[in-house]
Design goal:
With about 240 residues, the chain is α/β, with parallel strands linked by helices. It has one domain: Spore Coat Polysaccharide Biosynthesis Protein SpsA, Chain A (Alpha-Beta Complex). Helices cover about 40% and strands about 15% of the residues. The chain is built from nine helices and seven strands; from the N terminus they run E-H-E-H-E-H-E-H-E-H-E-H-H-E-H-H. Helix 1 runs parallel beside helix 2 and helix 5 runs parallel beside helix 8. The protein starts with a strand and ends in a 9-residue tail after the last helix. The structure holds guanosine-5'-triphosphate and magnesium ion. InterPro entries: Glyco_trans_2-like, Glycosyltransferase_2, Nucleotide-diphossugar_trans. This is Glycosyltransferase 2-like domain-containing protein. It holds the Pfam family Glycos_transf_2.
Amino acid sequence: MNVALIAPTVNEVEGLRAVFPKLPKDLLNEIVVVDLNSTDGTIEYCKKEGYRVHHQVSRGYGAGIMEGLAHTSADIIVEFPPDGSSPPERIGDLVAKVREGYDLVIASRYRDGAKSYDDDFVTRFGNWLFTAIINILFRAHYTDTLVGFRAYRRSAHNKLGLSTRGLSWTAQQSIQFAKAGLTVTEVGVDEPARIGGVRKMRPLKTGLEILWVIVREFVAGRKFANVFPVQSASER
Ligand SMILES: Nc1nc2c(ncn2[C@@H]2O[C@H](COP(=O)(O)OP(=O)(O)OP(=O)(O)O)[C@@H](O)[C@H]2O)c(=O)[nH]1
Ligand SMILES: [Mg+2]
């Protein structure tokens, strides 16, 4: 199975400079930077170093990942925010779990003693609250439904119907994998602080967006699981 890494960027040149040289290139068949109108040298850095850049046509984090999916073909997808908060040396652990049979593997900041050095009180509490609500409503066992660093099988993802265009993408993905009864796991991964640039996530806006996604997904019920009968990893 081939592996594609999708790295969404809006002015992240400092993060890229620090993180991209450490990517495990031997594991990655495709690397695509999905960039939304960066003006800080992100595009120039990528071109100079020979990375493929897809210029995002739409707006929003989720919409950017969707464009990245459309412009890659590998069977395993790694979503990798390159702002310094995703440790590149753990990509191999996530990919190994997908190869083992899991459909979705989340790099949880709150499992196995992992720590976030990027969280503040609001983001930590927000993640705890939304993750608790998602676990109750969708009978899941997540510790981190919102982190951007994750890996999954394209074939599993294609059975779902992700539609959210903003930073609630990760919440919707966590919910839909659980609703469809796909095999999901987490590995504990420390989250270093962002390197340079500015955070695009705005707690109130993103929080309301996530709440809206949760309500929509709850009202929609488990229809994806019914429409697409899902095999367990062991049957595949
Ligand atoms: N292509 C693209 N990238 C985006 C967009 N919004 C955010 N990003 C990138 O997505 C990554 C994560 O964004 P952040 O602003 O750090 O948000 P976050 O990591 O979810 O939130 P924190 O944990 O608080 O940092 C960064 O690399 C951003 O540059 C977007 O609309 N399009
Ligand atoms: Mg970040």
